Amino acid sequence: MAAPVGFGRGAGFVMAGARFVFFRHPGLIRYWIFPWVINTGVFFLLCFAVWFYFDDVANWIWLPSQSTGAVGILMRGLHWVLAVVVAILMLGIAVVLMVLVGGVLAAPFYDALSEEVERLVQRGVDAPLSVSAFLRDAFRAVGLELVKLVLYLAALVPVWLLGLWLPVVGQVIATLAGFVFTVTYLALEHLDRPAARRGYSISRRLELLRTRFFAAFGFGCAVWCLMLVPLVNLLFIPVAVTGGTLLFLELDET
C-alpha cells in the first residue's frame, strides 16, 4: 500500500513534473513552446519597463535630497535603497502579471498539455496534437481560468485592505494570509484541470483540496518557490501543469 501523500511528497511532484515533461517525454514541447514564447516575450518587455521606469517611480515616492554634507549623503543613500526596493517590487509584479495574464491566454495549450500527460500516464503512448480537440476545449479552458483569477483577486482584496487599515499587525496578517491564498491558488490552479475534464463539481474539487490539503499546499509552496528563481521561473508553468496533473492522478486514486 502506497504511503499517504503529505506536504513533502506533494512538493516533490514539482520535480516529478520537470523530469516528466523535459526528460521522459520531450515531445511534449509541442504543447508548451508557443505559450512559453509569448510569456517570455511579455516578461522581458515588462523587465525593460522596470529598468527604464523604476527610478522615476522611486523619485515619485521620494525625491532625492540635494543637500550637501553628511546628511545629504545619508539621504541619497536611503533614496538608492528605496530605488532598489521599488525595482524588486516591480519585478515581482512583472512575474505575477506574466503568470496571471499568461495563464489566461495560454489556458488552452496548458489544458491540452495536462490532458496529454494524463493520457501518457494511463496508456503510455504519445499522440499527435489534435487541432480540432484543441479548439473544442479552448473556450472552456479560458473561461475556467478567468473564473479562478476573479475568485483569487476577490479573496486578496479584503486581505490587502486589512493591511492598509491595521498598521503593523494588519500588515503581518495580510502578508501571511496573502502567502497562504497564493500558494493555495497555485495548487488549485494546477490540480483543477484534470478535475474539470472529469466534470467534477466545484464542491467535489474543494473537498479534494480540503481532504488532501497538506499535499496540495506542499505542491503549491514548491511552485511558488520556483516562481522566485530568475530565468527558471520562465519554465515553471509547464512543470507546474505536469506536476499538478501527476499529483491529481495520485490523489484521486487514494
In brief:
The chain has 254 residues and is mostly helical. It has helices at 7-24, 29-61, 69-105, 107-123, 131-165, 169-197, 202-211, 213-227, 236-253.
Care to describe what's here?
This protein is mainly alpha-helical and 254 residues long. The protein has one domain (7-253). Helix content is 83%, strand content 0%. The protein has nine helices and no strands. Helix 4 crosses helix 9, helix 5 (131-165) packs antiparallel against helix 6 (169-197) and helix 8 runs antiparallel to helix 9 (236-253). The protein is globular. The termini are close together.
Instruction: Provide the β-strand percentage band.
Output: under 5%
How many β strands by DSSP? 0
Q: How large, in whole angstroms, is the Cα Rg?
A: 21 Å
Number of helices: 9
Mean pLDDT: 77
Derived from helix and strand composition plus strand pairing, the structural class reads: mainly alpha
Mass-distribution shape: globular
Spans where pLDDT lies below 50 across 5 or more residues = 125-129
What is the helix content? over 70%
The largest pleated sheet is described as:
none
- Give the N-to-C terminal Cα separation: 10 Å
Instruction: State the domain count.
Output: 1
What string, H for helix and E for strand, traces the elements in order? HHHHHHHHH
